[in-house]
Every structure is written in C-alpha cells, then in structure tokens.
Amino acid sequence: MKKIEAFIRPEKLEDIKEIMDELKLNGLSIMQVMGCGNQKGWTEFVRGAEVDYNFLTKIKIELFVTDDQSEAVISAITRKAYTGEYGDGKIFISDIQDAVRIRTGERGDDAIK
Ligand SMILES: Nc1ncnc2c1ncn2[C@@H]1O[C@H](COP(=O)(O)OP(=O)(O)OP(=O)(O)O)[C@@H](O)[C@H]1O
User: Fold this and answer.
1) Complex prediction ipTM
2) Which SUPFAM superfamilies match (predicted)?
3) Side by side, which strands form the sheet with 90-95?
4) What is the structure's pLDDT at 42?
C-alpha cells in the first residue's frame, strides 16, 4: 500500500475529486493547509509597514491506495492539478505497512478497496 499526499491549488479540488469515480477509489481525506514552496507568496503594506505573506492557502489531499492503484492516482492528480505556473504543488509518496477497516476487521489491501 502507498500513502499519497498531494498539495494542490484550492481551485483544482473539484477537478481532482473526479479521480474518485474515474479510478474507483473508496476513500480520501482533504485538509486546508498553509504552506510555501517556490511560490513565495506576496508582500503588502499594512498601515505603512511592509508585511510578508509567505504562506499561501493550499489543499492537501491524503489517499491510501493499493500498490497497483498508485501510479494511476499519481498521474491523474498530476494531470488535473497542472497549470504550468509556480505553485502547482507537489505529491509525496510513501510505503504503508498495514491498514484496518474497523467495522469488519479486514486488513491490508482488503481494508482500503
Ligand atoms: N518540501 C516540502 N515539504 C512540505 N510541504 C511542501 C514542500 N514543498 C511544497 N510543499 C507544500 O506544497 C505547496 C505547493 O508548493 P509549490 O507548488 O510552491 O511547490 P514547488 O516545489 O515550489 O513547485 P513550483 O516550482 O511549481 O512552485 C506548498 O504551499 C506547501 O504547502
């Protein structure tokens, strides 16, 4: 199993939700986060003082998928989140050891399919 954590532009969320149906995924978590990457934010003057707004609002999508689903999920997110401008986001992928569906006690791939 893999954990896929994708940081995307908030306005891309609706497009990315379509992946659930397209790839027949069962679960997804979404968080609103503040962050920065190469897209550095902006500078404004507030009551005469220069203020850096270094952190922009992003959406973090967290998905746990089977190994055989992961490449399709990564390429679908990449395709839907892309604009070609700074701030398109990033995807982090890590290995997951196990999962449990509490209602049934199913483990591993069975718990997330
Ligand atoms: N190394 C990192 N660790 C944790 N979060 C990160 C990291 N890099 C990016 N993020 C998160 O991803 C969001 C989007 O980052 P951003 O698109 O600016 O990445 P980037 O690598 O600088 O890409 P680009 O060059 O396309 O702007 C950030 O606002 C932050 O929330």
Assistant:
1) 0.90
2) GlnB-like
3) 29-35, 56-65, 2-8, 90-95
4) 66
